[in-house]
Design goal:
The protein is of the alpha/beta class and 256 residues long. It contains six helices and twelve strands. The protein folds into two domains: 83 residues, no CATH class; 154 residues, Metalloproteases ("zincins"), catalytic domain (Zincin-like). Helix 3 crosses helix 4 and helix 4 packs across helix 6. The chain is flat and about 55 Å long. The two termini are 37 Å apart. Bound molecules: zinc ion (ZN). Zinc ion binds next to loops.
């Protein structure tokens, strides 16, 4: 069976047979041990240490044939730089009582309202916008996440259907995931997958992402013809792209 074509997704793991990746390097930092992921790139000319500003994860890229102890020495010699860079990253925001979280681009304070039963919901009152959560304190992060994922799925489903109707194409299953490398994907069968974190962004950004994936129903590529279709759906899509380039990484600092 021919593998299905996918765009906006890395090749699914079952389609490639990678050699076992090198194990991470563990280093001691002032605030405890830390694991550095290691990747080997034959084309790399030297060792490169990078921090992903979305996840705060560190990766060491190695040319082929570098001895393990040299790689470890290099990472250890960069511990001070690593520490400074990590400290400069915005802190992670857990979904706990009192935390400020954007929903559809508007900051909301999470308010835990005791053990009573009730659906998680948004409210805007004299003290601003709040995200009301019931239940035990331990249940709050999970409930907030489930609520945001459900809101994301609802908004993305509505936007995808609207754009599909406008372009005259069919779409398949719609789902939300927690992807880091892509905001959305479209399979050859028309199944659409999105990052739930798009619900944190202003609505025009989510709307553009839906248009982007739905437009792949006509063109499974990023050709000039493809972008013409996107422009039909979202004339000023560049504004949304720009927003994602600037603020997209920060969306990964919220929740799990
Ligand atoms: Zn695309």
């Amino acid at each position: 069976m021919a593998p299905s074509r996918l765009v906006d997704l890395l090749i699914p793991p079952r389609l490639r047979k990678p050699p076992a990746p090198p194990s991470p390097i563990r280093i001691e930092m002032r605030d405890g041990p830390r694991e550095i992921a290691v990747v080997v790139r034959p084309a790399a000319r030297r060792m490169i240490l990078r921090i992903d500003r979305r996840t705060g994860g560190a990766t060491l890229t190695l040319p082929r044939g570098v001895a393990r102890f040299r790689a470890e020495q290099f990472v250890q010699s960069q511990a001070g730089w690593l520490e400074a860079r990590l400290k400069a990253l915005p802190p992670r925001v857990a979904f706990t009582d009192g935390a400020m979280v954007p929903v559809r681009g508007v900051m909301h304070r999470i308010r835990h309202v005791g053990s009573g039963r009730g659906a998680t919901h948004l409210e805007t009152g004299p003290e601003g916008s709040v995200l009301m959560v019931h239940g035990t304190p331990e249940a709050v992060p999970g409930r907030v996440l489930r609520f945001l994922r459900a809101e994301a799925l609802a908004d993305l489903t509505a936007a995808s259907r609207r754009h599909a109707t406008a372009l005259g194409v069919t779409i398949g299953r719609i789902s939300v995931k927690d992807t880091v490398s892509r905001w959305g994907s479209c399979s050859s069968r028309g199944d659409l997958a999105y990052s739930w974190r798009l619900i944190l962004a202003p609505p025009f950004v989510l709307d553009y992402l839906a248009a982007h994936e739905v437009a792949h129903r006509l063109e499974m590529n990023h050709s000039a013809r493809y972008w013409r279709n996107v422009r039909l759906l979202v004339p000023d899509f560049r504004v949304a792209e720009d927003w994602l380039n600037r603020h997209g990484p920060a969306l990964h600092h919220y929740g799990p």
